[in-house]
Amino acid sequence: MPTILEVKNLQTRFRTYDGLVYAVNGISYELNEGETLGVVGESGCGKSVSMLSIMGLIPQPPGIIAGGQALYRDSDLLKKSEEELRHIRGKEIAMVFQDPMTSLNPVLTIGFQIGETLQLHMAMNADQARQRTVELLEMVGISQPDRALDNYPHQFSGGMRQRAMIAMAIACMPQILIADEPTTALDVTIQAQIVELVKRLRDEIGMAIIWITHDLGIIAGLAQRVIVMYAGFIVEHASVDEVYDNPRHPYTISLLGALPRVDMSREERLVSIPGMPPNLIGLPKGCPFAPRCRFVVDRCRQENPPLISIAPNHEIACWVNVQTGDLQ
Amino acid sequence: MRDEILVRVENLKKHFPIRRGILFQRQVGAVQAVDDVSFDIFRGETMGLVGESGCGKSTTGRTMLRLYPPTGGSVRFNGQNIFQSNGRDLLAIRRQAQMIFQDPYASLNPRWTVNAIVGEPLWVHGLVKGRHAQTERVQELLKLVGLNPMYVNRYPHEFSGGQRQRIGVARALASEPEFIICDEPISALDVSIQAQVVNLLEDLQDKLGLTYLFIAHDLSMVRHICDRVAVMYLGKIVELAQKDELYNQPLHPYTQALLSAVPVPDPKAERQRQRIILTGDVPSPVNPPSGCRFHTRCPIAQSLCSEQEPEWHDPTASSGHWVACHLV
Fold first, then answer.
1. How many domains are contained in chain B?
2. Pairing state between β B179-183 and B211-216
């Protein structure tokens, strides 16, 4: 499959009163057409910031895009002007955010907000946009779409708002959908509805998806490839089966060990990762996970390991081979 | 030990009035947050209470300890009715029944030091004499929950989310309770930190012989930590059983849908799982559906379900698997 988005060595920093925050520290990955890529990590690991960076949604200042490229169809998104980006955002690359209440405008109707996208990008007039909006709301499973159109966001439940956000995102049939924890604020039964909906739309529209989450469960059923992030670095990158069956980075291993399963009884204790994620003010010397790692060796504290390939479609950033205990 | 009932909840009701009018506020309705809930908690066990947001699980916990004035029913703690106790009796019960809250940012007074926060129950219940003794006891408690005793004079903002939750646990333990209601104690924490807090709660239970009511929406974690589990929907308990029984053979259609909606961190299992996708949202508790409250979303509902409230019964007749459904 051809590559649609290629991110190279992306670095994002924030200037704060306490010092420079190293939010994203040189991450590189590719997204192929029609593929679903999962990005997993805990809060503050840079997963959202890395996506906002390539969309040009980081306010500068205080943000600084310190380096890197984001090649969308061979042109660098990071070099585009605000005007050029506006034609891509929402049309070719769309985004769905975590909290549908704060990302919808409370004083405008749902229909207006979706129609606005259509009028702007698809050169539709108001009537055409309205008609298309009804179709879109129907596609995302909102009942009585011709009436729901004139409702305000507060009249929708959380699940319906997220459906409306998705309708807005797919309005222009984007090539890439970036979903930033779209189900985190929702209940599990509603989450299941949204995940089913996105899967169906993915197959209908054929768009590529980047799904950001902290929930390793959702990704397992949704993504083909997974990136695990920690402290602004990619620490593991592999196909979905490899990540879950054969995780090789100590962080991924611990993260999976910390998760109980609903379909299996587990009597042993959960693996708890001691300590907490590092403060990102100032880059750590050595591997950022070293202070919490079970497998740590001297070299980890001195040098940060690069992302290396250990098998086809499997990369990790770790000095230690956790299976043999040898250095890589 | 398991057969001794520590807490008996009978027909617990909590309705929040809805009032209209400016000067003469008349009651125009009620949010039936908890309606006729009964269950027992045995000494030394962990009882789970699960359900989606708005189902009344937190209200149940809070009403049990009279943080909300109850609308009806009774809660017996060691045989003593909490709702009819006052003054010294109530104080004595509150000493033995404590609570840990969901949001470690909101449940600790930001202007108080850890010493004051964890020490408050000590002087309220007259457990220590003098400042020095209090500080010493607080330091012991901090050690017990895995915090550095040197932190006594720090303020909540100096701690991370996981550490704050440990302070909340230390405060709950200060009065040497027998019973602790954990109201979503890990929902606000990152995955790696969740495991730390869950392991801490389990260790403390082993060490101190505590009994927990564990309120959560994370069904995987509940399966891990609990002995028995009750499932709530719209103010009612719909099913209650031993955890493995409930997770392996859920009887109520709502429990079945809820369990099937939880994603599993295993791509192979995910591909094979059958999801029961519920349509629509949870109805409003102001005007709950007639008969069985789940009938509006139930995939197997019949006409009987909307007419008659299902009886709370044990179809297995022996294993203590209770369910409220006409069709099982």
1. 1
2. parallel
